[in-house]
Every structure is written in structure tokens, then in C-alpha cells.
Amino acid sequence: MNAHLNLVTMHRASAQRFGPRVALRFKREGLYHDISWETYRTRADHAAAGLISLGIEKGDRVGIFSENRYEWLIADVAILTAGAADVPLHAPLTSPQAAYQLQQSGCRGLFVSSQAQLDKIEAVRDQLPDLEWVVSFEPARSDLFPRLLTWDGLLQRGQQRGAALAGDLAEREHSLSADDLATIIYTSGTTGRPKGVMLTHGNLVSNAEATVGASLSTSTDVLLSWLPYSHIYARTCDHCVTNLTGATVCLAESIDTLLVNLAEIQPTDFTSVPRFYEKVWSAVRELPVGERAERLRRIFGPRIRRLSSGGAPLPRHVADGFLEAGLALLEGYGLTESSPVISFNRHNAWRLGSVGQAVPGVEIRIAEDGEILTKGPHVMKGYWNDPESTSQAIRDGWLHTGDVGQVDSDGYLTITDRKKDLIITSGGKNIAPSELERLLVSDPYIDQAVVYGDRRPFVSALLVPNLPLLGEKARELGCPIDVMRDLITTGPLVQFLRERVIRLMEGVSKPERVKEVLILGRPLELAAEEITATHKVRRRHLLSKFEPELEAIYARCEETKLSLTDE
Q1: Is the four-CA dihedral 506, 507, 513, 514 of positive or negative sign?
Q2: Are the C-beta atoms of residues 365 and 424 closer than 8 Å to each other?
């Protein structure tokens, strides 16, 4: 049973309890600004009244198309306070992608951050007949939306009409049940067209309460937040959890300023995806052990108590390196459809290499084929307007995660792979690509790796090298870094990396060994849809780009009579 009726009453309780204390801290034009809990709540109520004056009814959907900013967080609370559900869009989405999500979810209104995001929407205005108005956090102009308001204009509108709408607001807030829709979050689309995950007030409240209970989070926490709020990881762990505890959320300016913001804020808590920790580790791994440990502790600051990792598998060598420096990376596991937290490691209960034990109220079961199933109040209501996909995902109350794993006798869950990503070679061998990828990125010269080989005679891989380090090797060998169609073609460098891969593969069985590689001459790009907003690799999309070159690998090996068996 949840302690709070819904997300709105949960937020209001913290605002009443913590009043003048700092809720949000953000940086504008070089200076940090603070918003107290009472101001946070007041502005959310004014914005909610403004939404009602625009005609928003209980159960309507309202989009948010914006980068992280404090207005995003207030808009979210305001939409929920008005009894509506929000549809957060990843800020990098293109016009057609945004149009699909807004149209499919039936949004009546939309918050945008700026003119740039509004321009994307104007480009597809004819595809959005249900969209009635837009509110822009920054000043913007539009010829296609007569009902365009500024953020300040919406707050003023709500403040002026707040007294008249107070009764309506209170009624909507207290009529929201655990089963009422709070948000529709579209999946990352790593395996196809995104689906709208319906999460209720009960889903998010229960998951926040379970996470707080297991992590012992308190109102004294200071969290540096940078992951996109359009993704469920940050939405729950950075937003809902702090709304429950009354902690202070400090917004990072961008991923490019994280190290600077860490030094400025000196947080007690930091949530991130493995990619950031990998980059930090790559920058310090060549230092002597003592100096490396000192540098890592200096990066995260003297107050850090909790470093959380989720959203993708954490490479074991990174976890080992941080632990050696006295910093435990607490890895967890979840997905959008589970609100998201299913399990995570805690300071008083953790096991390296696992994703921890289930949070309170959450059940985990391993199916006969190894798939991880979960059941509890965290499981989504379903996919928006997609009953067929819903019935495939949830069977007898159990959410089928699509991940493969195992639970040990102490309840610690270990993820071995994505069920759909499992490679079956032409020789019938089942291979888990994520284990090979984790092994490959343990090499300092390899930044990212994507393994390939389904229905092929052997396994190959697409590698993203550590380009600065590879540049040093090129200078040492006296050769340029030649690139053709984004792939490095310099013979000595290709051979250098191939030999490193061969040595890495000595620790796995022959069928699993990566025998050939393609080497990218650039990082993976969000704009090219090669990674998601949380830096997950869009495996199928990426590999399809290099299908001709991958096909050529196998054709070349066939011609030269290389060993094509996986014996």
C-alpha cells in the first residue's frame, strides 16, 4: 500500500514539510539560482490553473519537448496537478519522430523549450490536428500556432485565475487514484518503432517509495542530475524520488559540463549511465594506482555517498577500478515498462557483477528459457493503443523483460544478455553478445563494441576505438589514420587492434571468439540514431549501416578458405 495517494499529493507533502529549503538549483548565465519547495509548489499550482484555463481536462495528454531545465520539472508536476498525463519527448528527436509520438498519444497541448524545438513542430503542423496550443519556456514566435504562450505568461494566467479554480484543482488532485495514467513514455526504439509505455500514479509512487526504502535516501541528499527527464531512469530516480524525500536536485548544464558541475556542486548522490563512468575511467586508467584513486575521488568530490549506474550493462573492469579507488558503483536494473527499478545494489547489500536484489514489493522469476520476469505494483498499465503488444509483454501479471539472467541463492540478479540479441551461429551455437562486448571494452584501446554473427559461421565485431589513444599509436607507427565510409582502413592500425582482440578472446570458448573486426573512425552519434538519449547502442540500426562491409568480411573469408567453423 502506497503511503501517498498520487504523485501530486506526494509532491505537496514535501513542499509543506520543507517549505523554504532548496528544492531545485540550476545555473543560468554563469550563476546558480535556487528555488525553494514552497516556490516549486506555488508555481506548479499556477501552471496547473493555467492549463485548466486552456481547457485541459482530467485524462488529457500534454507533451513536453525540452532539454533538462527547472521548468521541465515544474511543468511535469503542473500537468499531473491538472489531472492530465504528460508525454515527454527526447529533446534530440526529429520533426517526424516528434510528430509520431504527439499524434499517436493524442496530445492536446505541448511545452517546448525554445524556438528551435517549436520550429520542429511547425514543420509537421499538418500532422497534428489535435494539438491546440504551445507553451514555450523561452520567448518564441509562431505563424502556425495562434495559441502560443510563454512560460511566464502561463504562470500569470494561472495566478490570475487561481482563486476561481482552486476548488477544481483540489478536486482533481484528490480524485487521482493509483490506477490513473500519469505519463506515456516512448521506448528508446533500439529494436524498432517506439511504443508508448503507460505508467500510472501508482506505478511511479510505489517505485519511488521502494527505491527510497532500499537506498536509505533522505532529505539531506544533494543530487547532481543530468540524465534526460524524458527517460524513465531520471524521471523516477532523480525526480520522483527527490519529490518524495525532499532532497535538493541540482541540474547539470549539459553532459559536456559534468566534470565542472561536479566540482561546483560537490553532490552526495549521482545517477548516471555506464558510458559516463567508462569515459571517466578511460581518462584515469593509465595513472599509477594511488594517483588514479585520488583523481577519481577528486572528480566526484568529498561529499559523494552514492554513485548509481543503470540503463545499460556496467563493464566489470570499470566497476573493479572504481572499487579499488574506494568508490562503489552501485549498479541497478530496470526498464521503462517497470517504472523502472526492479533491482539494485545497496551499500549494505551488494555483489559485484550483479544488479542487486529486488526492491521491496517487486518479484523476480526466471522463466524456463532464462528470460527475466517481474511482477508487482511497478509493472506498467500497458502500451498506449496497442493491446496486442501489451498482451505479449504481460502474461498472468508477469512482465516479460526480454532480458536473460539468473538469480543466486541470496537473491542477487545477474543479467547475461538481451533475449532478442542472442546470436545463434550457422553452426547452432548460442552466444551472448553483451558478455563479449564487455570483454572487448576492457581493452584501453576499445571504447565501444557491437558484436555481430547471427546465422553466420563465426563472430565479428564493429569497434569504436579510443581515438586519442589510437592517434598516439599511429604516431608511434608512423602512419596516418585513413578513413573510408567512416571505417579506419590503415593496415597497421587495423592489424594492431585485431591482434589485441585475438588476445582478449583467449579467455572464451572457440565458438564465441571474435575473429574479424571493423573499426569506426568516429564516435557513435545520437543525431545519426546510433545511440539513444541514454547512450544505449541501437544495435540493429548501427549494424544495418555497415551491412555491406560486414557481408564482405564473410565473403572474403570464404574466398581465402579461412576457417569458417565454430568448432
Answers
A1: negative
A2: no
All domains in the chain, ordered by first residue: 7-23+33-176 (3.40.50.980), 205-419 (3.40.50.12780), 422-559 (3.30.300.30)
Residue 59: how many CB atoms within 10 A of its CB?
A: 10
Q: CB count, 10 Å around CB of 473? A: 17
pLDDT digits (tens, 9 = 90+) for 501-513: 999 998 887 888 9
pLDDT in tens, 381-397: 999 999 999 999 999 99
- Beta pairing partners, 172: none
Q: If you write DSSP's letter for every residue of 280-334 in order, what string do you get?
A: HHHHHTTS-HHHHHHHHHHHH-TT--EEEE-SSPPPHHHHHHHHHTT--EEEEEE
Cell reading at 305 = 555517498
Give the angle subtended at the CA of 208 by the CAs of 317 and 249, to the nearest 5°.
75
Grid cell listed for 187: 521506448
Give the three-class secondary structure for 147: coil
Q: What is the pTM of this model?
A: 0.85
CB 382 within 8 A of CB 394: yes
In order of 206, 232, 513, the CA distances from 127 in angstroms are 36, 27, 48
Residue 538 in grid coordinates: 541501437
